[in-house]
Design goal:
The chain is of the alpha+beta class. It has 2 domains: 50-227, Beta-galactosidase, Chain A, domain 5, CATH 2.70.98.40; 243-493 and 521-624, Glycosyltransferase, CATH 1.50.10.10. The chain has 13 helices and 36 strands. It has an 8-stranded antiparallel β-sheet, with no helix packed on it. Strands 1-2-4-5-12 form a 5-stranded antiparallel β-sheet. Helix 4 packs parallel to helix 13 (612-623) and helix 6 packs parallel to helix 8 (414-433). It is elongated.
């Protein structure tokens, strides 16, 4: 699937004009389109299949409604009528990540009271297959005409989102259903069971006569087949899902039932967002989000794979492998960098490059995946790419100790320096453990980064100081504070379950923890991307005040790891409350409005839902309650639970450490106990 607009910027949301930074063409942003709202839609996802449903269950062809396969709308209309009338919609709900259920009712001829004599249940899957069941509560036999009106425009998702889908195609009768054929030989077929009594191709209508005994049922099953050129016979979007082989089915249970529901939904969504690499069918990676960001592998997919490491290392390996294939080579200054598009950075800073983000994340994810139990063969294959990323980091930081983004004329951002410092420390640990040269040079570079950050980025004030958001080439600082500061507390895992040293000293880390807990940043639903008191604050600005689940999850885990339990627990409770409002399917972001009694978080109109970083972020934040620190190469694992047990007793099972199932429990007194682990692992609490 592609983005809504050809060439649209990855995660770009209409950036405001600002000073331009010249970059190579492959990272220049394009003007984004206006996204139609889907935050009220029920999205059934099993990529590359996707169904966008309104709550009533009818597919009317209006807006983005429809069934999609690989970014093409294969079914735009599916309208049910019984006895000439549409059922009264009663309820629409998600039954699973890839399936929705709709319930309606109809009064039948002869009903004397207000009670409907007929209920209609529709179950639709992501690939468009549907089961429609009419159930009679009438005391007499019923004979009712049933009609399903179908249509297809084979429109591209981008054209649909921009309001230019084109006309519906003319159908032809095909077997027990209808077929539509578009350009380049692409076709779609809908078949029905039982076969219809009548098929009107010109109108796209299938008809039956339903006979229902008292208390009886009548069921129609529809099957949609995408006849994309080159697709093997029988292959269908969403078939052969890799989720069960890539991500473990982790479970949570405890005093508070909500973590279990959030974890279950998040794992389902992560599995639904998996898509295969067309060039390498054995490789899978996460789409950034549905419906707008199902394109090539992105930096967000890498961050999501990192946060999902407790569910297994295979996703990290396949995502790293996909990005490794795009790494720049040659002897130039950009050699070793992973390319990526620009992303809007809010009202104060120019856009920054997701390629820089991915380059710095690559060795971090590889190093941590090794700690969780990455197989040696994968490590050996991916290590050379990580070394080239680290070489690029050393050259780019140079004597200044700072990494500009985008470079070389862009500002040095605090968030980027945190990523670079983490990459240097974990990269050094990785190289040393694998017997490769370069660890000492990386440790020296990390030391220079710390010194420069404290000298150039820390802004003193009577309230205890704050980190600057960025430092310009001319020495100018951007003092605005936002959720990005959470990355300064994201340390990473070293050998023996140790945490990597952070950019900040202890006093500075404590001050950042205090700042994250202030009402200016903590909305009550999570961290604002820009503080409420900062110039340009916009609660719906995706980098200007909206709550981003990724940043909130990073903050929860970082605060918990550094011992700031009160602040971590407050953010976690807010995130959990927001998840409950979103039926446990968290969007990538939502409005940073201050929480009020009885209020609910406001959805962002352009947010993807489900989104990879939101689903994986939920896993990351919840597991901060138990603080699992694996060291598979050292055959050890330890847990560092929150002693305050903010959600009461909780148990996680189905996790994966060293390639084997792992389960851990934390009691109401905050004491942890490992209940299941790979044989031979040394356990510590």
């Amino acid at each position: 699937m592609g983005s809504v607009a050809p060439g649209a910027v990855d995660e770009d949301r209409d950036p405001a004009p600002r000073r331009r930074v010249q970059l190579p063409r492959e990272v220049r942003p394009a003007r984004p389109a206006q996204f139609p709202s889907v935050h009220d839609a029920l999205l059934c996802v099993a990529l590359p299949a996707l169904a966008v449903n309104a709550g009533h269950g009818q597919l009317t062809g209006e807006g983005p409604e429809g069934v999609y396969a690989s970014g093409r709308r294969i079914l735009s209309r599916c309208v049910l009528r019984v006895a000439g009338r549409e059922p009264l919609a009663l309820q629409g709900r998600m039954a699973a990540a890839d399936r929705a259920v709709f319930l309606g009712a109809l009064r039948v001829p002869g009903d004397m009271g207000p009670d409907p004599g007929l209920t209609v249940e529709r179950t639709r899957s992501a690939d468009g297959s549907e089961r429609i069941t009419l159930r009679s509560a009438a005391a007499r036999p019923l004979r009712l005409p049933v009609e399903i009106s179908l249509g297809s425009d084979l429109a591209d998702l981008g054209a649909v989102a921009s309001g230019r889908p084109g006309p519906e195609l003319t159908a032809s009768v095909h077997g027990t259903g209808l077929r539509w054929t578009g350009e380049a030989g692409r076709s779609v077929t809908v078949t029905a069971d039982p076969p219809p009594m009548d098929a009107l191709a010109a109108a796209g209508v299938l008809r039956w006569e339903a006979e229902l005994a008292p208390g009886g049922t009548f069921t129609v099953r529809l099957r949609v087949r995408d006849g994309a050129p080159g697709r093997p016979a029988g292959a269908q979007g969403g078939a052969g899902r890799p989720g069960g082989h890539v991500l473990a089915e982790a479970l949570a249970e405890g005093d508070d039932p909500r973590p279990g529901q959030l974890l279950r939904t998040s794992v389902e969504d992560l599995r639904a967002l998996l898509q295969r690499d067309p060039a390498h069918p054995a490789g899978v990676h996460l789409a950034a989000g549905v419906p707008w960001r199902c394109g090539p592998v992105t930096a967000e997919a890498l961050w999501a794979a990192r946060m999902a490491l407790p569910l297994g290392t295979r996703l990290a390996a396949t995502t790293l492998r996909a990005l490794a294939g795009s790494q720049l080579s040659g002897g130039g200054s950009e050699s070793g960098r992973i390319p990526g598009p620009l992303r809007d950075a809010g009202p104060h800073l120019p856009p920054h490059c997701t390629g820089v983000e991915a380059t710095l994340a690559f060795p971090v994810v590889l190093a941590e995946a090794r700690r969780w139990g990455l197989p040696t063969a994968d490590l050996e294959e991916l290590l050379p790419t990580a070394e080239r990323c680290l070489d690029w980091l050393r050259r780019t930081a140079g004597a200044s100790g700072l990494v500009p983004d985008p470079g070389p004329a862009g500002p040095s951002r605090a968030e980027t320096q945190a990523h670079a410092h983490r990459a240097a420390l974990l990269g050094a640990d990785l190289l040393d453990a694998c017997g490769r040269p370069g660890a000492d040079a990386l440790l020296e570079a990390a030391g220079t980064m710390r010194e420069q950050f404290r000298r150039e980025f820390w802004l003193d004030d009577p309230a205890g100081g704050r980190p600057a958001a960025a430092l310009g080439p001319d020495g100018r600082t951007w003092p605005t504070l936002g959720g990005w500061a959470a990355h300064l507390l994201d340390t990473g895992l070293l050998g023996g379950g140790r945490l990597a040293r952070g950019l900040l000293d202890r006093a500075e880390a404590e001050q950042v923890a205090r700042l994250l807990a202030t009402p200016a940043l903590d909305s009550g639903w999570g961290l604002r991307s820009l503080g409420a008191k900062e110039p340009g604050h916009n609660p719906l600005g995706h980098r200007a005040g909206a709550v981003r689940v990724h940043e909130t999850a990073v903050a929860v885990a970082g605060l918990a790891a550094l011992g700031h339990e009160k602040e971590a627990a407050s953010l976690l409770r807010g995130l959990l409350d927001a998840a409950e409002s979103f039926a446990y399917r968290l969007p990538e972001m939502y409005a940073g409005e201050q929480r009020t009694a009885g209020g609910r978080p406001v959805p962002h109109p352009a947010a993807c839902r489900p989104a990879a970083v939101a689903a994986a972020g939920a896993v990351h934040a919840l597991l901060a309650l138990v603080g699992v620190r694996p060291d598979a190469p050292g055959r050890a694992v330890s847990t560092h639970p929150l002693r305050s047990a903010p959600l009461g007793a909780i148990r996680f099972s189905g996790l994966v450490v060293a390639g084997e199932p792992f389960a851990v429990r934390v009691g109401r007194l905050g004491l942890g106990m490992v209940e299941e682990a790979a044989e031979g692992l040394q356990l510590g609490v």
